[in-house]
Amino acid sequence: MTHGRLTGACHCGAVTVSLPARPDGLSRCNCTLCTKTGAVWGYYDPADVTVTGTLDGYVRADMPEPCLSTDRCRTCGCIVQWHAIVPLDCPRMGINMNLFDPADIAGIATDHIDGRSWPL
């Protein structure tokens, strides 16, 4: 298990993510987007995250006022992160923790979020 900085990558390695430490917790959301992407989220202040490589963003078209962009590797399509496209109360972004070695996130509690119940 890593106790310092964590480094992960998409499947092809074109995008890398560097984090200051393990997240305090993980989230698995059952909204239609998260279910289809399979992401497991860890949350960070964007100032603490370094992402290298080229990303494509997706903003949900099924929401009248979308609040985030889900970004993926332009080459292999792996979901890397989400970032806010509206102001938030505190700086926050989600990182797909499936990009990291399973040993790096082993033992971290996972919350199950009922995103399907959120109003569009």
From TrEMBL:
Pfam families: GFA. InterPro entries: CENP-V-like, CENP-V/GFA, Mss4-like_sf. It comes from the Bacteria. Keywords: Metal-binding, Zinc. Signal peptide: none annotated. Residues 6-119 form the CENP-V/GFA domain. PROSITE patterns: CENP_V_GFA. Belongs to the Gfa family. This is GFA family protein. It comes from Sphingomonas immobilis.
